[in-house]
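Summary of Year 1 activities. Much of the first year was spent building the evaluation harness for sequence design. The harness presents a backbone, in tokenized form, and records the residue chosen at every position. We chose the following record to illustrate the format because it has been used consistently in internal testing since the harness was completed.
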């Protein structure tokens, strides 16, 4: 499963149960983010231990952050998902937004490099 455009790439690696985000992700509204949400939802169905790697994602707009928030709530409500986000300390939006996601799911693990 993957999405590749000139601006961004999103790919799921089942071997590591990780979805990798790269580039600049600025889609218009929640409907535009549905294919991304579908990749994430399919990935948590495949593995209860799951990682989202955002280290190479330079930009995510507010609609994208809302989509991640909705995903975290769905993962929390499943009750069987161990979720981790990997981010970059150098990317300001990640340090701020990922900590807010932890409020939605206190068991969420954050790993910054």
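For this record, the design step produced the sequence shown next.
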């Amino acid at each position: 499963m993957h999405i590749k455009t000139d601006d961004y790439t999103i790919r799921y690696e089942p071997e590591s149960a990780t979805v990798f985000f790269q580039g600049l992700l600025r889609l218009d509204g929640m409907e535009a983010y549905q294919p991304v949400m579908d990749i994430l939802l399919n990935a948590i169905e495949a593995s209860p231990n799951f990682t989202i790697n955002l280290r190479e994602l330079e930009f995510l707009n507010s609609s994208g952050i809302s989509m991640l928030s909705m995903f975290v709530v769905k993962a929390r409500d499943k009750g069987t998902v161990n979720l981790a986000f990997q981010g970059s300390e150098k990317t300001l939006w990640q340090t701020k937004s990922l900590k807010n996601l932890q409020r939605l799911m206190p068991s969420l693990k954050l790993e910054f490099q």
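The chain is about 40% helix and 35% strand. Quantitative recovery figures across the full test set are reported in Table 2.
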